[in-house]
UniProtKB/TrEMBL annotation:
One of its GO terms (biological process) is siderophore biosynthetic process. Pfam families: adh_short (PF00106). This is SDR family NAD(P)-dependent oxidoreductase. It comes from the Bacteria. It comes from Kribbella jiaozuonensis.
């Protein structure tokens, strides 16, 4: 399941896992975006669903639709983020809450809804797209959000790791684009690598 699928990392990750024979639940806010992603995956067993990650009821409903179709997921990838340039003092309190809701709270909602069942089964990977390995004053809200993601990964590992759920993040430290140092298809390989790790070899973050 990819929450926050789009034409970059989200689609590349879905394509990488579908290539291994997996079905895929795709979640995005825009119907056009999620349908385009599904079409790119061709004849694969794919379910596109729309949901705004800041709408808890709507997001949980979307997650349920995917679970009803395919069962409890083996892999969940939270890839939603609000990427914007802002400095401390530029945003209102409400704007900071909106950014935090996308960057962190949506991931919390997704984990709270799916991780218990994954733990009950005894296996699975919960992977989050990170960023900002170092905070940047020109991207204050994103820096704060990605710091929150690191903490969330640690909390998920502490809560569910012993039950077999691998929580980790892929920290992307530059602008994503084909043919660059952050090519989405190359990035997607790191998600697959994390999912393939045996528990004794688990790492909680890959920085690229």
């Amino acid at each position: 399941m990819v929450v926050g699928v789009g034409p970059g990392i989200g689609l590349a990750v879905a394509r990488r896992f579908v290539r291994e024979g997996m079905s895929a639940g795709l979640v995005a806010r825009s119907e056009a975006t999620v349908k385009a992603a599904a079409e790119q995956l061709g004849s694969a067993d794919v379910l596109p669903v729309t949901a705004d990650v800041t709408d808890e009821v709507g997001l949980r409903s979307a997650l349920d639709r995917v679970v009803e179709a395919f069962g409890v997921p083996e892999v969940v990838v939270y890839n939603a983020a609000l990427i914007q340039a802002d400095r401390v003092g530029d945003l209102t309190a409400e704007q900071h809450r909106e950014a935090w809701a996308v960057n962190v709270v949506g991931a919390i909602t997704t984990a709270a809804h799916l991780a218990p069942a994954m733990a009950e089964r005894g296996s699975g990977s919960f992977l989050i797209t990170g960023g900002m390995p170092l905070s940047k004053p020109d991207y204050a809200s994103l820096s704060l959000g990605k710091a929150g993601i690191r903490t969330l990964v640690a909390l998920l590992h502490q809560q569910y790791g012993a039950a077999g759920v691998h929580a980790a993040s892929v920290t992307v430290s530059g602008g994503v684009g084909p043919g660059t140092g952050w090519d989405p298809d190359e990035i997607a390989q790191h998600y697959w690598r994390l999912h393939q790790q045996a528990p004794a070899d688990w790492i909680d973050e890959i920085v690229i």
